[in-house]
Amino acid sequence: MKPIRKSLSALLLSLVASAAVADAMLLNVSYDVARDVYKDYNPLFQKHWKAKTGESLELKQSHAGSSKQVRAVADGLEADVVTMNQVNDIEFLVEKGLVAKDWAKKFPNSASPYTSAMVLIVRKGNPKNLKDWADLAAPGVQVIMPHPKNTGNGRNTYLSAWAWALKQPGGNDQKAQEFLGKLLKNAPLFAAGGRDATTTFMQRRIGDVLITFESEAEMIAKEFGKGEFEVVLPSLTMQTEFPVALVDKVVDKKGTRKQATAYLEYLWSKEGQENAALNYLRPRDPEILKKYAHFFPPVKTFTVDEVFGGASKAFVTHFKDGGSFDKVYVAK
Question: Residue 145 and residue 282: Cα distance in Å, rounded?
């Protein structure tokens, strides 16, 4: 009888444990290189929420190219929240009736809890002496970047290079387009996302330079060692933002609005901002930014509003079908 009692006891404990695993589950659908950010953030929020409410939360992550991700959400992937790297992807979900029109007003800083910048990652010793955007268009240089039509990383790269060309003496849209044509000719392929671009550059050893977020450099250092590459800060680059939003249709269906709202709000907490800094994302909190200033060397940046009149206008001009990218890429 004892073995039977033990088996029944074990079964009951298992059932109780599984029932108590979580009071709610949230799915965060995010961009490609945010895996580590939220892998570190989720336990912080779970601990905070448990202490505050007594609820246990199961937190799941999904990562891929940003535009691919929002299309998946539009097609039925039940994300409670989306945490992206470009405004246009959130606006796409607004158009689909999944996200509120005033999403950017629901959280501070136009719903972007941290920023970054596009930088150049070159191989140890910088053998081709790549210092700025102009060098990337030189003959014989191979540039690795994600696809500008499908990824926020790729679009930010494209706009950074375009803005740099505009700001050169005598710069205008025609010259910027010509410059982008030369730069894209040096791209042997377009990666599916930021992490795929990193894999192509670091593991497959393709290319002379990888263009990516400043924060991705630390992931590369953790995985491959700091001595394997160098970070080059261009003379001008885009300040990238990372907008977040509730997927209203999903949280109302699942009854998770309270938890999902708190999940995003906590990104602005001291713990959330410190987690951003430790993942080499520039925090909004001035005290945390000052504390980790040694992580973030000075770099001259511009915003998409300053140069392109906003993310939506930039998307229509450059990345919508028939936009500048299509013209440049056909010429390529």
Answer: 22
